[in-house]
Specification:
Layout: H1 21-34, H2 38-53, H3 58-65, H4 70-86
């Protein structure tokens, strides 16, 4: 095989999920309407959901680029202090 030829291997990991009956009926109806299998529809929906959360909106980015005003900075510092005080040692087993 020449080096310029690409070989792609698709590894599929089987899994199972539990869906409420009404949601499953909606999934099946949508997959049928699109002419795809339930599995293909769910894979596409999951990928779309993950991709949608992989990017931040331009509005959020513009807000994050601006420096905090004094009042907001004070509130942020107070909240970070509270978070730091509430942290637990992650090495300890959780209380049950």
């Amino acid at each position: 095989m020449a080096r310029s030829q690409a070989v792609t291997t698709l590894v599929v990991m089987p899994t199972s999920i539990r869906l409420p009956p009404k949601l499953l009926a909606r999934v099946d109806a949508r997959a049928k309407a699109l002419g795809v299998s339930r599995n293909d529809y769910l894979v596409g929906a999951i990928e779309a959901g993950i991709d949608a959360r992989d990017t931040w909106s331009p509005e959020l980015l513009s807000i994050l680029e601006k420096p905090l005003d004094a009042s907001t900075r004070h509130l942020f510092d107070d909240s970070m202090t509270a978070v730091r005080k509430a942290r637990r040692n992650r090495r300890r087993a959780p209380r049950l």
